[in-house]
Every structure is written in structure tokens, then in C-alpha cells.
Amino acid sequence: MKRLIAAAALLPALLATGAFAQTVTDEVTMQLWCGTAMVVAFSNPPPEVTEEQLAQAQEYIDAGTALIETAIQAHLDAGFTQDAADKIKADIVPVVTEQVMGGGENAQFTFEECLAILPGQTDAAPANPSSSAM
């Protein structure tokens, strides 16, 4: 009986310390990846782009940022701490950057897949995306 009481007493401590693994859905993973990819791909336009293309790129950056925020909130809702969610967000940037800017051969998702989940996405892609994957 004493063991049962001790185990019950430890349960709140285990829950508070994150002893249970947190997970998010594949949709949340895609939101974080695609949001990061949009921000990465459209944040460094070539010098010859027009003002119209810059404005359109900003729409993709804003939509990507919204996807990232949604994904981070989903991580928090799943029990991740803010620090853990921030680390996940920071850790994915170099991975996505390499995939998107490296030609896109190993990109986890295609530009079209990411377009399909963008909030407020526009119908036409910018004329000069930074990479073939994006």
C-alpha cells in the first residue's frame, strides 16, 4: 500500500517534468517545415526582382510565418514547453535551408504541397522562387 501511495505521489512530478513523450501530428510537422521553407525561400530574393515580385514574396513570407506560429502553438498544446518548441523551431531552419536552397532534391515536401496548406495562399506562385523545391 505504501508503494502505491508513493507512486501516486510521484505522478504529478513526472507529469510536470515531461516524463511522457510529446508528439505532434504529421500535419503539424508539415506546417512547420513548409512555413520555414516559405520564409527561407522568399526572404533572399535576387537583385533583379521587381517591386511586384517583392510584394508577392512578402505574402509568402507572411503566410509561412503564420504556418510556423500555428505549428508552434500545436507543439505547446501537445505539452511541449516554450523552450522545447523554440528549440524545434530553431533546429529545423538549417535542415530546411539546406533542403530548399540546395536544389530541393531531398526536400521533405514539394512547393505545391506547401502551397496547398498556406493560410490565405494566392493562386499564382512568384515568377522567380529561390529554388526548384520552393
What is shown here, in short?
The protein is mostly helical and 134 residues long.
Task: Give an account of the 3D structure.
The protein is an all-alpha fold. Helix content is 64%, strand content 0%. The protein has helices spanning 2-16, 26-42, 51-77, 82-101, 111-117.
- Put simply, the count of helices is 5
- Average pLDDT rating: 81
First-to-last CA distance = 60 Å
SS elements, strand count: 0
Structural class: mainly alpha
The profile of the biggest β sheet is:
none
- Strand-residue proportion: under 5%
State the order of secondary-structure elements, H for helix, E for strand: HHHHH
**Residues in helices, as a percent range:** 55-70%
How many whole angstroms does the radius of gyration measure?
19 Å
User: Globular, elongated, flat, extended or rod-shaped: what is the shape?
Assistant: globular
**Low-confidence residue ranges:** 1-19, 124-134
Spell out the key features of this protein.
134 residues; mainly alpha; 5 helices; globular; disordered N terminus; disordered C terminus
Topology:
Layout lengths: L1 H15 L9 H17 L8 H27 L4 H20 L9 H7 L17
Helix pairs in contact: 2-3, 2-4, 2-5, 3-4
